[in-house]
Design a protein that fits this description.
six-stranded parallel sheet, two-stranded parallel sheet, binds NADP nicotinamide-adenine-dinucleotide phosphate, alpha/beta
Length: 281
C-alpha cells in the first residue's frame, strides 16, 4: 500500500516506513505540514492514504508561552491542511493522538468514548487537532501512549542511566502501558488494509499496567543492568522545572475496540525484549 507519511523521521514515522515499504515518507524539509499551500500542492498521485505523525512533541517545551504559536501551528492548524488534502483526493487520513488528552483522574482504562480533558498545552493542542481530524468522514484517530521507537524515549534513557548509575529515582505515581512504535505501525497497517470502520482507536501494547518506575525496573531486569529504582512522586520530579507540564496519573487505554477488529496488540514485555535485542545488537 502506497501511503504518505508526514513527520517521517520521528519515532512513529520511522517505524511506519518499515511496515509500509512503498511509502512516500517526507520529513519537515520535504513537507512542512504547517504550510497550507505546500500541503495542497503536494503530488498525491498513487497515494492511497495519508498518515500524519508530524507533531510538536516536546511536552514540557510546549508549556513555554513562547512556543505556543509553533505548537498550535503543527498540532492543530496543520491538521486542517491535511484534512483538506485528504478530502480533495478522497483519501483516508490517519492521525496520531495521545493518552495525554485525558486528565488521568479515572481509575479504569480510558475508552475511545471517554471525554478528553487535556491539562497541558501539548495535550490541549493535540485534543484540538483530534477534533479537526474527527470532523473528516474518512479518519482514523490512533491514540497511543508512552511511545518507544527509534528516537529519544524512556527506554533509551533508562538504558543510559542504568549502565552508569547504581540507583536512580523514577516517577511512580503515573501509570500506563508503553506503545512500541513497530507494533503501532503494524496496527495502523492492519486498520487500513482491513478497511476497519473509520473512527478513533486506542493503540498501545497490551500487558500489565505499570508505573514509570516499574517500567524502569522491567528495563533493568531485561537488560541485566544492576541499577536500583527509587520511587519518586510527580510533584518531587517537577521541582525546579519551570515549564513542567502536568501529566495524567492514569494513561491506560482500553484496547477492546481495536481487539474487535481482529488486531491483538502484543504484551509490552515481549515487545521490550525484542526492542532490547535490537538496541543491544
Ligand atoms: N512520543 C510519545 O510518547 C507519544 C505518545 C503518544 C502519542 N504520541 C504522538 O505520536 C505522534 C508521533 O510521535 P513521535 O514520538 O514519533 O514524535 P517525534 O519522534 O518527535 O517525531 C515527530 C516528527 O514530526 C516532525 N515535525 C514537527 N513539526 C513538523 C512540521 N511542521 N512539518 C512536518 N514535520 C514536522 C519532527 O521533525 P523535526 O525533528 O524536524 O521537528 C519529527 O520528525 C505524534 O502525533 C505524538 O503526539 C507520541
Amino acid at each position: 500500500m502506497k501511503v504518505l507519511i508526514t513527520g517521517a523521521q520521528g519515532q512513529v514515522g520511522k517505524a511506519l516506513q518499515t511496515v509500509f515499504a512503498d511509502a512516500v515518507a517526507v520529513d519537515r524539509q520535504e513537507l512542512d505540514i504547517t504550510g497550507a499551500q505546500a500541503v495542497a500542492s503536494f503530488d498525491y498521485a498513487g497515494i492511497e492514504a495519508i498518515i500524519n505523525t508530524a507533531a510538536y512533541t516536546n511536552v514540557d517545551g510546549a508549556q513555554d508561552p513562547a512556543a505556543h504559536d509553533a505548537v498550535w501551528a503543527v498540532n492543530v492548524t496543520a491538521v486542517q491542511n491535511l484534512v483538506d488534502a485528504a478530502q480533495k483526493h478522497s483519501l483516508p487520513l490517519v492521525h496520531i493522538s495521545t493518552d495525554y488528552v485525558f486528565d488521568g483522574s479515572q481509575s479504569e482504562p480510558y475508552s475511545e468514548d471517554d471525554m478528553p480533558n487535556p491539562q497541558s498545552e501539548y495535550a490541549k493542542s493535540k485534543a484540538a487537532g483530534d477534533a479537526i481530524a474527527a470532523r473528516y468522514s474518512h479518519h482514523y484517530i490512533v491514540r497511543a501512549s508512552w511511545v518507544i521507537g527509534d528516537g529519544t524515549n524512556f527506554v533509551r534513557t533508562m538504558l543510559k542511566l542504568g549502565s552508569t548509575k547504581p540507583e536512580i529515582s523514577v516517577v511512580a505515581d503515573q501509570k500506563g502501558r508503553p506503545t512500541f512504535a513497530n507494533d503501532l505501525a503494524k496496527a495502523i497497517h492492519f486498520l487500513l488494509t482491513h478497511h476497519a470502520p473509520y473512527g478513533t482507536y486506542n493503540v498501545t501494547n497490551d500487558g500489565p499496567v505499570v508505573s514509570w518506575a516499574e517500567l524502569a525496573e522491567a528495563v533493568f531486569a531485561a537488560a541485566k543492568l544492576d541499577c536500583k529504582v527509587q520511587a519518586l512522586s510527580t510533584a518531587e520530579y517537577a521541582q525546579g522545572k519551570p515549564h513542567f507540564a502536568p501529566r495524567p496519573a492514569n494513561s491506560t487505554l482500553n484496547l477492546s475496540k481495536l481487539g474487535k477488529t481482529g488486531m491483538i496488540m502484543p504484551d509490552w514485555r515481549e515487545a521490550l525484549t525484542e526492542y532490547l535485542q535490537k538496541e543491544q545488537a
